Structures are given as C-alpha cells and as structure tokens.
Amino acid sequence: MWDRYLSFFEARGYHCYALNLRGNHGSRPVSDLGKVSFNDHLTDVREVIDMLDRPMVIGHSVGGLLVLKLAEQIELPAFVAIAPAAPRGIISVTTLRVFLPYIWTMLRHRPFLLKRKVMFAADLNRLPPPEQASVYEQMVPAPSKQGVEIGMLGIPVDAKRVVGPILILTGTDDKLVPAAVARTVARKYRADFREYAGHAHYIMREPGWEKIAADIECWLAEKECV
Questions:
Q1: CA 123 vs CA 77, 144, 205: distances in Å
Q2: What mean pLDDT is predicted for residues 114-142?
Q3: Domains along the chain with CATH numbers
Q4: Does the predicted model carry a pTM greater than 0.90?
C-alpha cells in the first residue's frame, strides 16, 4: 500500500521504510493472528524506531492511531496520521456501522477481512474499479482483538502528553473514518490539519495522490529544519 509514497519520498532524499507488522505475510509469525493486540503492533513500531535515528513517522487508519499513541510516548521530529482511527473519547458512528456485522467475529478474536462489497464502498470508494479489485486481492485479515480494543474499549491517547508536531490528513469522501472525525482528532491533539476534496480513506493511492504526498513532504521539510 505504500509503494507510491516510498518512491516519491526516496526520490526527494528520504530513506524510507514500510513496516510489515507481526502476523502479516513475511513478518514475525504469530500463533493466532486474531489475538494480536494494538500494543503488540505498537511494540513492533517502537522496535523499528529504536533502530533508526529519530525518524519521522507516517501511519494510515489504525496505523494513524499508532502514530498518535507514539506521539504520546516518545518525542520525534514529526508525526503524520492519515485518516486515523479515532482514539478513546471520540466516537465515529459511521465506523461502528461498518464493523457492526463483524462484532461476533471480533468478540471471538477471529481474524477478519471486510467483505469485498463493503470494502469497495467504505475504504476503496475513490479508487478506479480495476485498482479496487487489485488492492482488495492483496489485503490480509486483521486481528479482531484490535477491533474490540479500538472500536469498543477505545485506545487512550492523553492529549496533555502528546509532544512533537503532528499533521492529520483526511478526505471529504471518506466513508470509513469521516472527515468530521479526523477534524475532531486534529483539534483535540493540536495537530495541523489538511482536508482534501474528492478523496476518501485510501488516500495514499487514489488519483491525485501526488499532490497530497507533496503537501506532506513540504510539511515534513519545515519540521525537519526546526
């Protein structure tokens, strides 16, 4: 999902790494994917960060929530959260409706993947149809334990402890994490905010992604120089 951003930022002098979190294809194996917790994946990210020299981090959706949690725990030059899942205290009714049919699967901690029709409508709705299909074919099941942790219990992120510059981006047509939710998250965590008309949840690959990547690069360059 990050191939275009990797090429874009590497061409501008950044050393880029895309994390393959535990339980995913080719990464650290787990005995039960469904029971992988949010903190397990947070630990994965922290381990990679500790290997690097104060990196700037970018995350999408649940990865965006990981970015917010990181900003609560450590100080880095910059944090970018793209269409982040909402932390505890911010409710997204739209998101809950999408995942409601999977509630029993999540409570049993079974791995799950949104059905094709649902994913096309809620997540990939602004991708061209041929790319919707090719992207969906590469998707893998998610840990349902995280669905419970994020959607029912909520992941706490203390705004008073969040440090470092944060940029939050969203699309006006996001049917999974609505722009209004991202706007609320940005206000709570005193983040810079960008909203893009005609874009949705899979904003990193949608037509016109280059403009958004360029905006991120411009923002990062300013933070890098401070």
A1: 29, 18, 12
A2: 96
A3: 3-225 (3.40.50.1820)
A4: yes
